[in-house]
Amino acid sequence: MTAKSHPLRSATVALALLSTTAALWAQPMDVATPATASPSAAAKGLLAAFDKADTNQDGQLTPAEAKVIPGLLANFEAVDSNQDGRVSRQELAQVTQPE
To answer: pLDDT for 8-20, tens place per residue?
Structure first.
C-alpha cells in the first residue's frame, strides 16, 4: 500500500518529516515572526535537506542517503510511492502537499 492510498498515513508521514526537518534546518527568525514555520517553509526546508542528502546528485535518495534526514528512514516505504527502493524529490514533495 502506498502513502497516497491512505491519506491519514500520508499526512502523518508528512507531519513527522516536516516537523523534525523544519527544526533541523530552521533559519533565524525576526522577533515579529511566529515561532512556528508555515507548511510551505517547512516543505522548502525538507527539500533543501533532500538536496544536501543526495550525495551522488541523481535526484533520488537511497536508504543510506535518507539516514541524515530525521524521520525519513523510518517512513521510507511510505514515502517511496512507486516502491522502487529510492525516494525521489517528487515523492518527498508529494507527501508535503496538503490533501
So the answer is: 566 566 656 655 5
Helix axes of 89-96 and 7-24: crossing angle, nearest 10 degrees: 100
User: What sign results for the dihedral spanned by CA atoms 78, 82, 97, 61?
Assistant: positive
**Displacement of CA 20 from its chain's centroid (Å):** 9
- What are 40-55's pLDDT values in tens digits? 888 889 999 999 999 9
Q: How many CB atoms lie within 10 A of CB 47?
A: 16
Half-sphere exposure of 80 (CA within 13 A, CB side): 16
87: β partners: 61
DSSP string, 1-23: --GGG-HHHHHHHHHHHHHHHHH
Backbone region of residue 83 per phi and psi (left: phi > 0; alpha: psi in -120 to 50; beta: other values): left
